[in-house]
Amino acid sequence: MPSFEYVAVDTGGRRKKGVLDADNAKLARRELRKRALSPVSVAEAGAAKPLTQDVGALIRPRKLTSRDLVLFTRQLATLVAASVPVEESLRAVAGQTDKPVVKSIVLAVRGRVAEGRRMSDALAEHPASFSPLYRSIVAAGETSGELGAVLERLADMLEKTQRLRARAVTAAIYPAALALVAIVVVIAMLTFVVPKVVDQFTSIDADLPAPTAALLAISNFLQTFGPWLLGAGLVAAIGLWRLLKREKPRRAFDRGLLGVPLVGRLVRGQEAAQFARTLATLTAAGAPLLDGMRAATRTVTNTEMAAGLKDASASVGEGVALSAALGKSKALPSMAVYMIAAGERSGDVAPMLTRAADQLESEFERVVDAALKLMEPAIIIVMGGVVLFIVLAILSPVLSLNTMAIR
Fold first, then answer.
1. Average pLDDT over residues 240-267
2. Closest CA to 5 of 70, 115, 102
3. Between the chain's N and C termini, which has fewer beta carbons within 10 Å?
4. pTM, two decimal places
């Protein structure tokens, strides 16, 4: 039985919103009238709303956020693993959320399941919320008859992926923000403070020391060409963004990124951990190894690594062992490849893939922590040196004038 979202007015003139189950919209309106409510609008849960009914859709997309998806998967996994029917589990999950968008989508999926469809097919009607990989894992769980266990693994994968991405964002944003603030402060000093101070010495025709003259030249340059430099930087950034949308330049950029010290290690570590975790989840769910490799490769955003993993997938399709194919691609660290090879020898690849993913994630977090500990003092030292130069350049003429006055 499908679910319908409604907006109605009670006898006191107050607007009411909610969800109710009915065979069709006409019966839903009839049920509202029985409850002494005058229906204003009734629409099937999850259906697109007219613009006049949902102006907020322009700025608030109707999809699950990554946090909502993790919570939905974890709650659903807990209920299904407890032998609660999927339809009832979806209804219970919808009742636990206070977000209208989440409730609407979950109830829409529940309505399709109530009609007899597989949950993976119902999820396919909401591609913005449920990726092809997500639906593939759910479909594998439905086929194997272990949907509860598969959803538990899927929830684990989503949580660890979210944590890994958060660590990567922290590694990129924190030092960038620190450097940006320091640069803005220095530019402000050079543009507004330094000229006023130095003008006091140029007005009395005093000879400026070399550091002060250099600082004044930099300040004049920024005041004259600063706006042009900013505009050129924006144009260059837009041009680079458009260029990286092309396959060959993006491949070359990603290849160069992997070669940058520390940055390349971080990128490779994150991508390898993501690939290993996804492949482990798919194989544990019962998906064929080759299909799992192809699906896991699509989660890798670095095109250079993705190309190597595609070649590895092709080799596996030709009968080459997984560890040998991955070792040849050099996409995963040698320790992870060795662990996968041990799993192949024991005939239990999925658990070893999970251990390899755990090891890669731990290594990535260790490298991120070390990088953050090094970057913060490095940025502070560099910017401290710049500020020291500015201070010395300002004080040098003052000291020179005092020396001349003493003589």
1. 88
2. 102
3. C
4. 0.69
